[in-house]
Amino acid sequence: MLETTIAGSLPKPAWLAKPLTLWAPWQLEGDVLTQGKLDATVLAIKEQEDAGIDIVSDGEQARQHFVHGFLRGLDGIDFERKVVMGIRKDRYKAEVPTVTGPIRRRGPVHRAEAALARAHTTHKFKFTLPGPMTIVDTIADVHYGDKIKLAMAFAEALNVEALELEALGIDVVQFDEPAFNVYMDEVRDWGVVALERAAQGLRCKTVVHICYGYGIKANADWKQTLGAEWRQYELTFPVLARSRIGGVSLECANSRVPLDLIALLAGKDVLAGAIDVASDQVETPDRVAANIRAALKHVPADRLYPCTNCGMAPLARDVAMGKLKALAAGAAIVRRELS
Which domains does the chain have, with CATH numbers? Predict the structure, then answer.
């Protein structure tokens, strides 16, 4: 009950990638980089265990970015042909590669780090993959010329990857879809369909992570335009409630999300963000416990999983580890209250 987990990324060690940076450039090269990614993955597992996290993750240590890390394993994408484009409805600009041919998975993309992490922990293990709609929103395209066809091509590649991860013993596969907070009509019309295709045939737990983004300035500025209540979930939750995806991950801590919207997810697991990743201040266990209690008013305890609001890649490592310890301690407080 109230098993804790993280949304996705953790900060990378300074010897592996540039600190305090989203899409951080690698500090190593060649075979040394390959081994460094695996070493950092094991370190991330152990740090989560030491912090008291129940469902651990690889922390995305082997990926420069949660989307492009997967894309590196696909044919049909030219990483030399990069363009700067607006993503998340032009909320901010990013340099992205270009789809120039049919999307095909060359082989396993994340098997090495997933298998290593699985072998180094007896905890439940969650692995994250980008969702099809968010991939489409984070890449240029000169081949398909149709977002839906492109999304379904990515969904098919994701599905093969997810099934192989499940075969390694992964307990939870999470698809990250921050674009679900931006393109409401598309979510209803084809976004969830593509997501379900990506998860097709999985017997392990499945989760979709929807969020308001990392704690970077572009996202902070966008949040200031959303008004006193952030109600985007009101449009996406009913669609997800009817879907075959088992759970939804969302942020709650230090946000303006009306928590009564969680009721729209009746019957789903809820990964409620009790840790704010847009602040360097480490929450107290009591503050985390209060966030969990607030979510419990709208979701049964056996369906609630306290987690972080979003990925923590741009944070300082000591801040991130402090937040994870607070998350575990806050959940322990509420468990004792419920026992």
Answer: 30-64+110-134+144-338 (3.20.20.210)
Strands 55-57 and 92-105, by their bridges, are unpaired
The string of pLDDT tens digits covering residues 119-131 is: 999 999 999 999 9
- The structure tokens listed for 24 are 């951080």
Shortest CA distance to 22 belongs to which of 215, 181, 210, 178?
215
The radius of gyration of the chain's CA atoms, rounded to the nearest angstrom, is 19
- Phi first, then psi: give them for residue 79, nearest 5 degrees: -80, -10
CA atoms within 13 A on the CB side of 339: 8
Residues composing the chain: 339
Supply the pLDDT for residue 172.
98
Write the pLDDT tens digit of every residue in 218-268: 777 877 787 888 888 899 999 999 999 999 999 999 888 899 999 999 999
**Pair of tokens at residue 300:** 């049964």
Q: How many helices (H) and strands (E) does the chain have?
A: 11, 10
Q: How far is CA 149 from CA 4, 99, 110, in A?
A: 36, 12, 24
Query: Residue 225 in 3-state DSSP?
Result: coil
Residue 83 pairs in a beta bridge with 96
Cβ count within 10 A of residue 256: 12
The pairing of beta strand 304-308 with beta strand 74-87: unpaired
The first and second tokens of residue 273, run together, are: 């963000």
Quote the percentage of the chain above a pLDDT of 90: 86
Q: What angle do CA 214, 217, 220 make, to 5 degrees?
A: 70
Cβ–Cβ under 8 Å, residues 70 and 131: no
Comparing CA positions, the residue from 47, 68, 67 lying closest to residue 57 is 47
User: How do residues 201-226 score in pLDDT, each as one tens digit?
Assistant: 999 999 999 988 777 777 778 777 87
Q: What percent of the chain has pLDDT over 70?
A: 100
Phi, psi dihedrals of residue 220, rounded to the nearest 5°: -60, -40
